[in-house]
Specification:
Elements (H helix, E strand, L loop, with lengths): L11 H10 L9 H15 L3 H12 L14 E4 L4 E3 L3 H10 L2 E6 L6 E7 L2 E6 L4 E6 L7 H4 L4 E4 L2 H10 L4 E6 H17 L2 H4 L5
Antiparallel strand pairs: 1-2, 1-3, 3-4, 4-5, 6-7, 6-8
Helix pairs in contact: 2-7, 4-7
This protein binds zinc ion.
């Protein structure tokens, strides 16, 4: 399970974009470092009451991480609740640390359905089992992650489909992650940042 992220290098041009768009203190060179820097940024965000309130709702299941009001290719369903769209593939995986969910998405290359069931950060049913995550970013521009980052983070049904897609889109900025690497990034970058904060323990029941 704890397959190390620190040997997985991030292409420098992608790292530069992640630093800008995720507001990191430096350019991450490995996936592990990216997780650490995200964690640092989120802990800082949590000093803001608004951000703390947001994550408290996510812990309670009354808010879904990355939920957006427009249509995306990624839908998240909490048990007994309606499906909602989330901004990117990583957002969907992050939510699966907070609540048991089913993610419905599609391969960015061929449109084939991709389904991941998760509970407590573990993906227990993955269809197709070969699915991977593309961690990409826009080439230029500065602003919200929703615009410049999220549309570039997607599931693919297999590594082969990433390669086929890359062959026709050679200028796309990004890297392929195994689903497990995507989960570990979600754990390190987000879940560990929030779980260890006062957010969880100060949670009150109404
Ligand atoms: Zn495909």
């Amino acid at each position: 399970m704890s397959k190390s992220l620190n040997t997985v290098m991030i292409p420098p041009d992608l790292g530069t974009r992640l630093r800008v768009l995720d507001r990191l203190s430096r350019t991450p060179q490995t996936l592990d470092e990216y997780g650490t820097l995200l964690q640092e940024r989120i802990r800082k965000d949590l000093e803001e009451p608004g951000s703390r309130a947001y994550f408290q709702k996510i812990f309670k299941g009354t808010e879904i991480f990355g939920h957006v009001d427009y249509e995306t290719r990624h839908k998240v369903q909490l048990s007994g609740k309606e499906q909602v769209h989330v901004a990117c593939a990583l957002d969907a995986l992050i939510e699966g640390f907070f609540q048991p969910i089913r993610i419905d998405s599609t391969c960015f290359h061929c449109g084939e359905p991709v389904q991941v069931r998760m509970s407590r950060g573990i993906a227990d049913r993955v269809k197709p089992s070969s699915c991977v995550v593309w961690l990409g970013a826009s080439q230029a521009g500065e602003g919200s992650c929703e615009t410049y980052l999220c549309p570039y983070i997607n599931f693919f049904s297999s590594s082969e489909h990433v390669e086929e897609w890359q062959a026709t889109n050679p200028n796309e900025l990004g890297m392929r992650l195994t689903l497990q690497q995507g989960l570990e990034l979600a754990r390190k970058g987000y879940w560990e940042a929030v779980r260890q904060s006062p957010t969880e323990t100060s949670q009150q029941e109404y």
